[in-house]
Specification:
The protein is α+β, with helices and mostly antiparallel strands. The chain folds into 2 domains: about 60 residues, Immunoglobulin-like (Sandwich); about 30 residues. The chain has a 4-stranded antiparallel sheet, with no helix packed on it. A two-stranded antiparallel ribbon has the order 3-6. It has a two-stranded antiparallel sheet with strand order 4-5. The longest helix is centred in the last third of the chain and has 31 residues. The protein is elongated. The N and C termini lie far apart (about 110 Å).
Length: about 120
């Protein structure tokens, strides 16, 4: 059994119980998601996740800590780097294409050299 607590009281609201899934090594995994979208970061310390394994006396309790708990909450700065890189690459490609087109249009076309002399050889048989 796994559940979330706030100030020692079991939570039922904003909690999504996941199913028990097998791992490739014969063990199992379970998830219990807690929606923290309306919880200020300074209140996270009031929450903990409790894992109770049947037949084991002590529960495993994990305090909600940003450094320890993975979250699906997006950090806006996490998207800044890939977007900036994509814009920079696009700018370089566009500049290269514009430079190539400019070069092709302004390239000085040298006139063909006229042949210096034509020699006609006529042989009568």
């Amino acid at each position: 059994m796994m559940f979330w607590r706030k100030d020692g009281e079991e939570l039922h609201e904003d909690v999504d119980l996941g199913e028990i899934l097998p791992n490739h090594d014969g063990s199992f995994q379970m998830s219990v998601d807690l929606d923290l979208s309306s919880v200020p970061a300074e209140d996270w310390r009031r929450y903990d996740c409790v894992f109770h394994l049947s037949g084991v006396e002590d529960d495993i309790v994990t305090k909600l800590d940003k450094a320890e708990i993975r979250t699906n909450k997006e950090n806006p700065s996490d998207r800044t780097i890939p977007i900036t890189a994509a814009v920079a690459v696009l700018a370089v490609v566009l500049a290269a294409a514009a430079g190539f087109i400019f070069y092709k249009r302004t390239k000085v076309k040298l006139p063909l050299q006229p042949p210096s002399a034509y020699h006609i050889l006529a042989v009568n048989i």
